[in-house]
Amino acid sequence: MCIKGKKGKQVSQGSKKLSLVGLIGITMAFFGTVRSVPTLASTGWTQIFYMLIAACAFALPIALMSAELSTAWPEEGGPQVWVKNALGEKWGFVTSWLLWVQMFFGMVMVASTVGVLLGYVINKPELGENSLFILAMILISYWVITILNLKFDMVKIAGDWGAVIGVYIPFIALVVLGIAYTVKNGINPAGYLADFSVDKLLPDLSDLGSLPTLTGIIFIFAGVEISSVHANNIDNPKKNYPIAVIVSVLILVVFNLVAGLTVANSVPAGEMNLANITQPFVIMTEDLGVPAIFNNIISLMILIGVLVQLSAWVLGPSKSMVKVADEGNLPPFFQKRNKQGIPINIVLTQAVVISIVSLLYAVIPDVSAAFLIITITTTILYCVVYLLISISAIKLRYKMPDITRPFRLGAKGNGLMWFVSGIAILSVVLTIAVSLIPPASVGESQRVIYVIYQTVATLIMVGVALLIYKNKKDSWKKK
């Protein structure tokens, strides 16, 4: 059986046991991304606090709960299966639905970097500031990739090299350049790290507009439950899985903070472009005397990684949704497949909706603001899923106490599960609440619109799932 990871990578569950080091590597692979570094860096010294909160109150609790649930219910389906067993078929469907529709916003956020990166590849970086150009690139890139995936197995063609070229090499290059820049220049008086004081390590509660950036940082760990599919495939999961998760999260925290702090030090305060990962490369290479062509090459590499990721997401979630459709939770229209077995109507539906969501770039001319808003929407939908998972983890302890749990939170009793789930529930509720605060980049006249947009988008996504389930018919079930 194959499981589709957050980055679109397929991993197999076989009889061969994973080593502890192997599991750590796989877990880190799910979260390695260079795109979130500008969002992290824009918070200056506060990013240290934000990353620790995201890791300790969000990533670790959800990963540990997911490990228990995935080892007890190892069948394909993941969160949908857990929630279905705990809260019933309706909420299981809502879970699978939200994991599908969140990509409508997530893929717009990912695709928005295509235009920015292309601008640097062709030596026209000013195009990255043009919201209409960004919109055009989102539409062209996603539709071209969608059409290609309907004809070819693009994930198989791209293989793992897309992640190596587009994620790992650029991330390492950014860290190396950042360290070299900091060693040479020290603390940049014009950067985000200037004039250090202890109070800058904590968020400024008098400036509520800065808090929503925490949501963008938490998005780094969105999909943390994916690595739990390997919990049954490692020796002594009770001991080794928590070690793997904790070590992986700690390494990612360190790498992201090194990259985030050095980028915050190099980019002038107030000039960070959240959708432009090439920006810090340009500043650092100019200062260090690295030939400018390096930026063209690194932009092309990241662009390749983005396109490969988009390609993986075109078919990954749709394959899960067609199973939900076959079970009778969606009309027969969504069960149609082409000659290659691809759920063509689901793939085309998601392409149409993604195109509509991308029109946000035509409404909000500030590329960074639009990028952050869409990132926040994606994280809110993920948080609703995590809320359902957390509640399910507790309920299943009482509803199905005799199920074998190879990995279990607490040797006896339910106290540790209540503690871990409680932290997770509190963190996702606070994340959703903070997400409804308009970011500082949103103008005064648009703040009410922002709150309405986030609220309505979330309610519509959940409401549509409930409406579909309420009105489903027995005839929908595939014979």
From TrEMBL:
Look up the domain of life of the source.
Bacteria
Location in or out of the cell? Cell membrane
- Per the UniProt record, which residue ranges are transmembrane? 20-38, 44-64, 97-120, 132-150, 162-183, 211-231, 243-264, 293-315, 342-364, 370-394, 415-437, 449-469
Cell membrane listed as a keyword = yes
A GO term from the CC aspect:
plasma membrane
Q: Which UniProt keywords apply?
A: Cell membrane, Membrane, Transmembrane, Transmembrane helix, Transport
Q: Name one Pfam family in it.
A: AA_permease_2
Q: Name one GO molecular function term.
A: transmembrane transporter activity
**How does this protein sit in the membrane?**
Multi-pass membrane protein
Among InterPro entries, the record links this protein to: AA/rel_permease1, APC_superfamily
NCBIfam families from the UniProt entry: antiport_TyrP
Tell me the protein's name.
Amino acid permease
- Which organism is the protein's source? Vagococcus carniphilus
